[in-house]
Amino acid sequence: MRSVVAWFYLLGHNPRGWLLPAIPWSIAQALILLLSQEAGLLQTVCVMVSVVCILAAGWIGWQKPWLFALATAIVGTLLQGLYLAVLANSIGAGLSPVAWFSGVVLLQVSQAQWLLAAFVGWYAGYFRRRLASQPRRDQGRRVQGRARR
User: Fold this and answer.
1) Binning pLDDT at 50, 70 and 90, where does residue 72 land?
2) Strand (E) positions, 1-80?
3) Above 90 in pLDDT, residue 86?
4) Cα–Cα distance between 113 and 126 in angstroms, integer?
């Protein structure tokens, strides 16, 4: 139970680390659903934007990168459902806004987008920690150079 409280503490003290990447992630995911199959290049760009947003969330939240990426995906899914629910009336698609919202959430869950986001975010944070833990090669040379003078 303490770890869950610690997770919420981390998310609460750095909301920009997972809320800001959620906005472009949700827009890109909504565009992927709305675009036709002929817009393959634009769909590919939207997929790349969504992956970069998840990577950014994991990179920023390096303490628990999977948590930041998962929070980004969950909030992004809720935002995506809201976008499409609002657009449902203007598009005239015949479905109610509640059906659009629940359809988006069920689609993201059935595609395991949240688990995939958690894994990708974990990898970004893992990579950041590995880069931070490696000693720089020029540090030893600088110390030796100062001793010689």
Assistant:
1) very high
2) none
3) no
4) 20
State how far the Cα of 32 lies from the Cα of 46, in Å rounded to an integer. Answer: 6
Largest CA distance in the chain: 79
Amino acid at 82: L
Q: Which two tokens stand for residue 116?
A: 């995939």
Judge contact between 8 and 62, C-beta under 8 A.
no
pLDDT at 11 over 60: yes
Q: What is the mean pLDDT of the chain?
A: 81
Length of the chain: 149
The full DSSP string for 94-148 is SS-HHHHHHHHHHHHHHTTHHHHHHHHHHHHHHHHHHHHHSPPHHHHHHHHHHHH
pTM, 2 dp = 0.76
How many Å is the Cα radius of gyration of the chain? 20
Angle, in degrees to the nearest 10, between helices 16-34 and 40-60: 170
